[in-house]
């Protein structure tokens, strides 16, 4: 329902993407109030202003990225068919998992997030249930399996892939288990008693087949190419082409400010340095090969004409009569 800033914590250190920005504070506040600001811009370090203050009901409503941390496999939920499952069940087939935390009676933001996700997924030739799985978990402990099933019928139908029924699960659970999973992935939310709704950010998480968090994406719009790159990273090389992995290694990296994978300078420079070294190595190898071939040719020539190689000079060769 609500959207707030995201916090990134990698290797145990927090890196806040707060509202302290060179962008005019009033504009940022208006955009955020409209629910269209998935992540605020980086802080610039100026003194806190009125517009930087966070309402009490929004405290803790943020995403704290816990990259490479393990998610709990043993936490129990109820699936859309009323069956008890564990979160780890969705990793049993060795596929990466795309996790979304929403709730089925959400008036707006959850629908925007899932609609944007489906639009991006439709751009992929891969399908949920084949190359990857999707798990949607309700953050509202009062919601029931029949609500989850209704949500599944709606969004699996919009997705339109034959394998969606098997590859996209919609879960409900107890408050304790929901909080345990949310804490593990750094998804902060809270219940607003005045509105009767949940304040929560818009974020999707990509998890490796072994249960480690590989990537986050914020916002409500997801490009197919960005989803593809994130799934390649999360799959640990089990899906995607060699070109996908080459582009991720040499050029592209996820930028949370733009919510896309984009070329980054250090990767381009690294690629240029590797290309230069490769060309130099090939050039030196070619020179060595041509030199060795020339020496071998000289040796064969001397071997095939021993008289010329070992005999004394003659009149024909010196031009002097005897």
Describe the structure concisely:
This protein is of the alpha/beta class and about 325 residues long. The protein has helices at about 25-35, 110-120, 145-160, 165, 175-185, 225-235, 240-250, 265-305, 305-310, 315-320, and strands at about 5-10, 15, 65, 75-80, 85, 95-100, 135-140, 170, 190, 195-200, 205, 215-220, 250-255, 260-265. About 40% of the residues lie in helices and about 20% in strands.
Explain what the structure shows.
The protein is α/β, with parallel strands linked by helices and 322 residues long. The protein has a domain of 210 residues: Glutaredoxin, CATH 3.40.30.10. It is elongated and about 100 Å long. It starts with 5 loop residues before the first strand and ends with a helix. The N terminus is likely disordered.
Helix % is 25-40%
Order of helices and strands: EEHEEEEHEHHEHEEEEHHEEHHH
Distance between the termini: 112 Å
CATH class category label of the domain at 57-266: Alpha Beta
In which order are the strands of the major sheet placed? 8-7-6-11-12
Shape: elongated
Strand content: 15-25%
Radius of gyration: 30 Å
As residue ranges, the low-confidence spans are: 1-51
Query: Can you identify the CATH superfamily of the domain at 57-266?
Result: Glutaredoxin
Q: How many E strands?
A: 14
Name the CATH architecture of the domain at 57-266: 3-Layer(aba) Sandwich
Structural class: alpha/beta
Q: Indicate the mean pLDDT.
A: 77
Task: Kindly report the CATH topology of the domain at 57-266.
Answer: Glutaredoxin
Count of DSSP-assigned helices: 10
């Amino acid at each position: 329902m609500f959207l707030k800033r995201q916090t990134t914590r990698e290797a145990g250190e927090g890196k806040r993407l707060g509202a302290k920005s060179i962008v005019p504070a009033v504009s940022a506040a208006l955009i955020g109030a409209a629910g269209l600001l998935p992540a605020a811009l980086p802080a610039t370090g100026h003194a806190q202003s009125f517009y930087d203050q966070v309402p009490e009901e929004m405290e803790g409503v943020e995403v704290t990225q816990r990259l490479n941390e393990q998610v709990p496999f043993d936490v129990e939920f109820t699936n859309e068919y009323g069956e008890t499952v564990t979160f780890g069940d969705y990793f049993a087939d060795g596929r990466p998992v795309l996790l979304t935390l929403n709730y089925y009676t959400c008036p707006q933001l959850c629908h925007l997030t899932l609609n944007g996700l489906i639009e991006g997924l439709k751009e992929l030739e891969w399908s949920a249930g084949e190359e990857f799985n999707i798990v949607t978990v309700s953050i509202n402990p009062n919601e029931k399996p029949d609500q989850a099933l209704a949500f599944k019928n709606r969004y699996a139908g919009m997705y339109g892939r034959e394998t969606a029924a098997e590859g996209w699960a919609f879960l409900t659970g107890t408050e304790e288990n929901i909080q345990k999973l949310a804490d593990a992935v750094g998804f902060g939310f809270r219940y607003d008693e005045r509105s009767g709704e949940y304040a929560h950010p818009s974020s999707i998480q990509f998890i490796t087949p072994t249960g480690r968090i590989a990537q986050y994406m914020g916002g409500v719009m997801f490009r197919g190419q960005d989803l593809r790159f994130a799934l390649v990273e999360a799959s640990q090389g089990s899906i995607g082409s060699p070109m996908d992995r080459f582009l991720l290694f040499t050029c592209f990296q996820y930028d949370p400010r733009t919510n896309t994978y984009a070329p980054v300078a250090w990767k381009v420079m690294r690629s240029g340095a590797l290309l230069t070294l490769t060309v130099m190595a090939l050039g030196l190898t070619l020179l060595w090969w041509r030199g060795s071939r020339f020496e071998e040719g000289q040796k064969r020539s001397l071997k095939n004409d021993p008289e010329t190689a070992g005999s004394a000079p003659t009149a024909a060769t010196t031009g002097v009569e005897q």
